[in-house]
Amino acid sequence: MLNSLGLPRAPADTRVVVAMSGGVDSSVVAALLKREGYDVLGITLQLYDHGAAVHRKGACCAGQDIHDARRVAEAIGIPHYVLDYEARFRAEVIDRFTQSYLDGETPIPCVECNRSIKFRDLLDTARDLGADILATGHYVASRGLPDGRRALHRAADPDRDQSYFLYATTPEQLNLLRFPLGELPKDDTRALAREFGLTVAEKADSQDICFVTQGRYSDVIERLKPGAVHGGEIVHLDGRVLGRHTGIIHYTIGQRKGLGVSAGEPLYVIRLDAKAARVVVGPREALATRLIRMTDVNWLGDIPLEAVSETGMEVAVRVRSTREPRPATLRQDATGLLVELALSEDGVSPGQACVIYESDDPRARVLGGGTIARAMAEAAPAAA
Predict the structure, then answer these.
(1) 211 assigned to some structural domain
(2) Is 301 part of a structural domain of the chain?
(3) Which of 34, 44, 72, 163 has the fewest CB atoms lying closer than 10 Å?
(4) Containing structural domain, residue 310
């Protein structure tokens, strides 16, 4: 008989490391597993300057959050360790985030944090501690497959589903990861926190990018890379120079407000040309995207990715965390993976993720995803 984590042993004989951020979700996970009789250890990662976010509402992994995690661990009676991952986080997440913006992209540091820090380095640490499982407070579901592997699915609570940020989890990592909140609504998590008497029961959820403790993203980039931001031209799609800007990092694809130029028509940011330091603007219809090229693809499907030929595979994809998955066709050609959207989407930005689902069902399985390298307007040619 399998225990609640899908392992063939008693809970008391199963060591679980819980990644405790100091928030309500991971705290409830630790308390739940402790109540079920598992051998639970709590680990909190210090990811950036702990003094910078002590008083900021909605932060995580720094300052007060570390103290909150420690208090929860003491209250439920589990060992708790704080690991200094600041140098790793700076190199793998913050520096990449900064360079991506300078390259005219719109990065998602949460994806890189999960890929490079939580589900790689922390998983290695959990193994060193003799853990059988690493559990987190993410809202995503992990389910066993008939062949013993694990599959990733959208969470039961659609408003909390974090599958978009976890597409880069590898099959090997999934075998050791568990997400106990994947089948719970957020309201139930809060209720459990109150039932356990946790001090973080009413704590606000983490918001936005954790290491941007004040001001704008561009402020962080200019502080970390002084002298790297250069001004340039704001150019209409038709070639007209409409004005100048102080740096492409101040703009995102699809932006309309705050462009600082006027052309007698509503204008949107269509493209960011980092090499030429140009912000290209135009009408909204120029934002429409039908084709997406991806890099750094992670595949979780049952059939090999190479088997996805030019004839295509019907899937659903999500091009922003705030959008629902939409029907698409997945193709593999000589240059790599190509997604053709059934209906065009606006504001598809290089640097964002394109996450692939089995369907647009609310509980659909995650098949993988990658980083958007290029977004194109034209439809794919019909297969011969």
Answers:
(1) no
(2) yes
(3) 34
(4) 288-376
Dump pLDDT digits (tens) for 90-106.
Answer: 999 999 999 999 999 99
Asked whether 96 and 80 are in contact (CB, 8 A), the reply is no
Q: Is 335 exposed, middle or buried (0-12, 13-18, 19+ CB in 10 A)?
A: exposed
Last residue of a domain, one of 267, 286, 305: 286
Residues 6+ apart with CB under 8 A from 261: 234, 242, 243, 267, 281
Per-residue model confidence as pLDDT tens digits over 242-270: 999 999 999 999 999 999 998 889 999 99
Active-site residues: which are they?
113, 210
Would you say residue 314 lies in a domain? yes
Residues 296 and 282 in one domain: no
Count of domains observed in the chain: 3
Query: Against a cut of 0.85, is the pTM above it?
Result: yes
**In terms of Cα–Cα distance, which of 150, 135, 186, 151 is closest to 357?**
151
User: Whole-angstrom Cα distance, residue 11 to residue 26?
Assistant: 19
